[in-house]
């Protein structure tokens, strides 16, 4: 193996322990829940999920779990998107 590639592998092994170097700005993922598979997405700082709870509350266990798992790689805003107050979805247009 050539020495410059060995250097890159060593650097990657160092970076592996510094996840905050990666800033996730866009993401699509399938979340295997207890009853179904849900489609999670992060677009900029905005999360969304295909589950029924998210549709009503603006957050859900799937989004919250992803925020916890990916926390060091998320912007401050996307780490904890606060749920919308109940009823605000209907009034906000
Ligand atoms: Zn969900």
Structure, explained:
40% of the residues lie in helices and 19% in strands. The protein is α+β, with helices and mostly antiparallel strands and 93 residues long. A hairpin with a 4-residue loop joins strand 1 (26-32) and strand 2. Residues 88-93 have low confidence and may be disordered. Residues 38, 49, 51, 53-54, 60, 62-63 line the site of zinc ion (ZN). Zinc ion (ZN) is lined by residues 38, 49, 51, 53-54, 60, 62-63.
Summing up helix and strand content along with how strands pair, one would put the structural category as alpha+beta
What ligands can be seen in this structure? zinc ion
Q: Would you identify the regions where 5 or more consecutive residues have pLDDT less than 50?
A: 88-93
Bin the helical content: 25-40%
Total number of helical segments? 5
Shape: elongated
Strand content: 15-25%
Write down the Rg. Answer: 18 Å
Give the terminus-to-terminus CA distance. Answer: 59 Å
Element pattern in H and E: HEEEHHHH
Overall tally of structural domains: 1
Strand tally: 3
- Mean pLDDT value: 89
Largest sheet: 3 strands, antiparallel
Output the strand order for the largest sheet: 1-2-3
């Amino acid at each position: 193996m050539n020495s410059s590639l060995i250097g890159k592998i060593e650097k990657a092994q160092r970076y592996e322990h510094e996840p905050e170097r990666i800033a996730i700005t866009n993401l699509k993922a399938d979340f295997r829940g207890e009853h179904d598979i849900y489609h999670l997405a992060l677009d900029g700082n905005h999360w969304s999920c295909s589950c029924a709870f998210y549709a009503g509350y603006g957050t859900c266990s799937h989004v919250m779990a992803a925020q916890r798992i990916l926390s060091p790689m998320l912007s401050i805003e996307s780490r904890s998107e606060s749920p919308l107050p109940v009823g605000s979805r209907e009034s906000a247009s």
